[in-house]
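ok so I'm stuck.
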Amino acid sequence: MSSLKNIVIVGASGGIYAARALEKTLPKSHRIVLIEKNDYAWYHPATLRASTMPSAEDLAFQDLSKVFPSSSQHIVLSGTEVTHLAEKSVTISKEFEGSTTVSFEYAILVTGANHYAPSEPSDRSKEGAVEGLKKAMAGAKDAKSVLVVGGGPLGIEYVGEVKHQYPDKKVTLVSKSSSLISGFNPKMGKALEKTMKNKGVDLRMGASIDVPSDVPSATLLPSPRSFTIVPAEGSGDASPSEVEADFVVVATGGRPNTSLISNSGHPNALNDVGAIRVDPATLRLTEPALGFYFAYGDCCDAPGPKTFVSMKGQAPVVAAQVASLVAGKGKASKSTWKEPPQIMMVSFGPKDGQGVLFGWTVPAWFVALVKSRELFVSSWKQEYLGKA
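replied:
not stuck anymore, here's the structure
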């Protein structure tokens, strides 16, 4: 067993950012143990394109074998699941250094959120997950009519990818809200609404739809089925309507991936929607029994929107907190999390989109140039290439 003191990070897809920050600040007496249940890192922002654009599956994946150079004391445990959380140790699914228990000085949870296909990987092996994306891709291509449930960024971006690949494809988007991307500058939502209507998308705003349990997300149905769209009270529509589709994608947003917390016997560490309760400034867990844990990203209740930008911003805060405590300064770092200004860019295929920066809307060409064209894939993948 190593004499090094461990800083455990659970979840490599978002945890890589804390790992990179800590790599620069931890003393040689400490090592990072980055644990990932899949044998790859999964890039959620690119999954919608990876599931619609032919031969683009690799956009969503990155190998974990080169995160740290062979000479580094830091280590990645890929294909390894954390099954239990204790006060200062975690239990894992595979033996490591002669044990399935990894002790730590501090731990960071970056377990993200659970989504429906195609945003959620279908398998823990890359080979299996690629097949899942190919299945979704074939379904979208062969579908006569696509139904997307959810008027947030996820639903809009999926519609954009489908319409880019198949401009004549019949696509219906159903949103409970009367406006798209609620909570941000309404001008962005209006602009996206106009874009979709110009592309021939059938928008059903202020309405809900129940997708039966026998209709899996992102799977081609044997034949078109009829779905009932129910208008919200006060929406102006008097009665339900029907829409036919043979390919349904549920894009209603993520649900915190925090079953590990409750399964470890700490239900009080979660709020009403299942997010991990953290101190809003330090992002340290407020549950006393888990006081040596921090969390960031979609799995926790940190102030602000659940976006990739927020997650990346929270990572260095947590890293600074941990580094300060490890250094024995007796108190946490002065680096704290503050809810960021409104920053959101929604792509609509690789050549279009809308956005808000610091509360101000930005033109479509800017979003296309900055985000839509490449989705920041290159910079994300680069994070996993450690330097010797």
